Amino acid sequence: MSGGKHGTVLKEVPVREAIGLVLAHDLTQIIPGQFKGRLFKKGHVVAEADIPKLLDIGKEHIYILELGDGELHEDDAAGRMAAALQGDGLLLTEPHEGKVAIKSALDVPALAVIEPSIVHAINELGEIALATLRTDAVVLPGGQLAATRVIPLFVPEKKVAAVEQLVRDYRSRHEGRGPIGLKPLRKFRIGLLTTGGEVFSGRIEDKFGPAVSRIVESLGSEVAEQRFAPDDRQTIVKEIHYLKQQSYDMIVVTGGMSVDPDDRTPAAIKDAGAEIVSYGTPMLPGSMLLMGYLEETPIMGLPGCVMHDPYTSFNVLLPRILAGETITREDIVTMGYGGLHTAATWDTGIGRQRS
Ligand SMILES: Nc1nc2c(c(=O)[nH]1)N[C@H]1C(S)=C(S)[C@@H](COP(=O)(O)OP(=O)(O)OC[C@H]3O[C@@H](n4cnc5c(N)ncnc54)[C@H](O)[C@@H]3O)O[C@H]1N2
Ligand code: MOO
Question: Beta strand 222-229 with 189-195: parallel, antiparallel or unpaired?
Answer without folding.
Answer: parallel
